């Protein structure tokens, strides 16, 4: 599994050119991409500046020598590269397994190109086996949970080490089991319309390129 993540991470950084402004996603697959980018920065003197999607990725970027900036300096990125929890046949995604979905969506939306890197296990024909992460404000989260139940989901407040998980934005995550998500656009729209929902982990029509590990090699899926 780690070898697959490493392969797609290394493949993805080939899309990064000198002078680019780069969005760095979150998660264990992204770790290898950030490491590979750092190696290019060091070996080739590649001149890039990056915005990351989580405090953990910030640390990795610093560790591997990638200069970081923020949206007060630049509002458009040339490329963003991130992992995913599920990718369907139409390249619609579920993200947020690591709890960074809000910043990930902001960064992906700010990028001219958004490339997704996954191992084979993330490819599905229909989204929904992975419970959909939904970021919500803490106040009244119980109300939002009840409304999501009425929409057919089974929400579970995310915990970590016995405590409520709090995102980098100070919010909570509801992991919402839906049997199958056949219409990601409609599901996203229903959820985002609820007062208290900050963002959903459905990344709809955001990527045209997915790099997937494939038997010790990588494969590019395009739309
Ligand atoms: O969306 C994410 C974090 O919020 C990650 O990209 C997603 O969970 C995949 O992570 P990993 O590469 O560790 O499987």
TrEMBL record:
Query: What exactly does this protein do?
Result: Catalyzes the reversible conversion of ribose-5-phosphate to ribulose 5-phosphate.
Pfam families on file: Rib_5-P_isom_A
Which transformation does this protein catalyse, written as a reaction?
Answer: aldehydo-D-ribose 5-phosphate = D-ribulose 5-phosphate
Reported EC number(s) for this entry are 5.3.1.6
PANTHER family the record matches:
RIBOSE-5-PHOSPHATE ISOMERASE
Q: In which pathway does it act?
A: Carbohydrate degradation; pentose phosphate pathway; D-ribose 5-phosphate from D-ribulose 5-phosphate (non-oxidative stage): step 1/1
Assembly behavior: Homodimer.
Residues holding substrate: 26-29, 82-85, 95-98, 122
Name under which the protein is recorded: Ribose-5-phosphate isomerase A
List the CDD domains: RPI_A (cd01398)
Homology family: Belongs to the ribose 5-phosphate isomerase family.
The protein's matches in InterPro entries, at most eight in alphabetical order, are given as: NagB/RpiA_transferase-like (IPR037171), Ribose5P_isomerase_typA_subgr (IPR020672), Ribose5P_isomerase_type_A (IPR004788)
Q: Where is the active site?
A: 104
**Biological process per Gene Ontology, one example term:** D-ribose metabolic process
Cellular component terms (Gene Ontology): cytosol
The family database entries (NCBIfam families) matched by this protein are listed as:
PRK00702.1, rpiA
An MF annotation (GO) of this entry: ribose-5-phosphate isomerase activity
Keywords of this entry: Isomerase
């Amino acid at each position: 599994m780690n070898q697959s993540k490493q392969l797609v991470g290394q493949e993805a950084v080939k899309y990064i050119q000198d002078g680019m402004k780069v969005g760095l996603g979150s998660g264990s697959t992204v770790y290898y991409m950030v490491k590979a980018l750092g190696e290019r920065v060091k070996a080739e003197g590649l001149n890039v500046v990056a915005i990351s999607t989580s405090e953990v990725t910030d640390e990795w970027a610093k560790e591997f020598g990638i200069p970081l900036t923020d949206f007060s300096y630049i509002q458009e990125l040339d490329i963003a590269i991130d992992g995913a929890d599920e990718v369907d046949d139409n390249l619609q995604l579920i993200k947020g397994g690591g709890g960074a979905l809000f910043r990930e969506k902001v960064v992906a939306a700010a990028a001219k190109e958004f490339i997704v890197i996954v191992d084979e296990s993330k490819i599905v024909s229909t989204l929904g086996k992975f419970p959909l992460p939904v970021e919500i404000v803490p106040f009244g989260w119980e109300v939002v949970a009840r409304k999501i139940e009425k929409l057919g989901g089974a929400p579970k407040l995310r915990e970590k080490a016995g405590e409520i998980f709090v995102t980098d934005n100070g919010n909570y995550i509801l992991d919402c089991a839906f049997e199958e998500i056949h219409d990601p656009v409609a599901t996203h729209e229903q959820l985002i319309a609820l007062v208290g929902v900050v963002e959903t982990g459905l990344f709809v029509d955001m990527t045209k390129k997915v790099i997937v590990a494939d038997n010790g090699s990588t494969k590019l899926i395009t739309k």
